[in-house]
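[Automated response] Your request has been received and processed.

Submitted sequence:
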Amino acid sequence: MSYSSQLLSNASAELQYPDVLERVITFTLCTVPACVLLYINGTMLFTLRSKPVFRDTCRYVLLYNLLLADTVQLALSQVLFLLAVCSIKLTYPVCGAITTLAILTTVISPLTLVVMSLERYVAVCFPLRHAMIVTIRNTRVAIIALWAFSSLHNLTRIILLLYFPFQELESLQMTNFCSDFAMVLGSLSDDYDTAFTCVLFVSAGIVIAFSFISVLIAARSASTDRTSALKARNTLLLHLVQLCLSLSSTVFNPILKPISKTVTNAVFVRLHKFLYVLIVLFPRCLSCFIYGLRDRTIRPVLLHLLCCRLKAKVVAASD
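Generated structure:
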């Protein structure tokens, strides 16, 4: 295991919840918001499949893909967090299966933001070609390509794991809590994972920034619809913010490493919970709030579904 991974192991080893009350409070404070966010995300996913206008519009299809990836990430992150709170350590095969799915969706999010940014770029800078380039068929092909690329990345990580001498281990039982960093075994896997993450987010940032600047230039042109260009500019700016938040969640464990060396165990546990909610939970619900409340087509349908379900639950509880 590389030096950075070893530091993470030490930090994970310090994450102990010796008091039962502390565990119960942590479980409640972190699980309730996660369940609420999963409920809202689930309603949003249902909304995006409820009407033909959502199923047949390219940007809504891309939004569904982004929201699906974020929802799966949120659910898996919460599962892994609760396992750590309860001090449950998995075996390498089980942890590998969970983190493989988590990493698959982690790569999907920034790539989907890239495609959504390019769609806005084409809509503003090439409005006459937009209907020809951005079609439902091409959008579905792009989504399949995103999932294929992410799957290839996961396959590469699995192949690199084969170089780790598992036969020398006394048991496949993990000594640390399950996480994607805990499954980075060996310097080769560590170097690949770091390089891939850097290239992915730098490339995504460049594409989104290019789209944003191009739309800004187009907005000043007399031949461009200024209202449409300004809306696209705001959307691309939100995409850039989302990309930064997605990147923040990938540095969650590296942030914990130096903190674990400078504070006491009790303070570290509380900081861990706070950073988890801020860095992991919050970015995963941002897409729903940005598009669900900002989009005039989605907002009434989403609010109607949320209000009807809440009323139904209140009536059922009163009965």
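Summary generated for your ticket: Residues 1-18, 314-319 have pLDDT under 50 and may be disordered. Residues 292 and 298 are 6 Å apart (CA to CA).
If you did not submit this request, please reply to this message.
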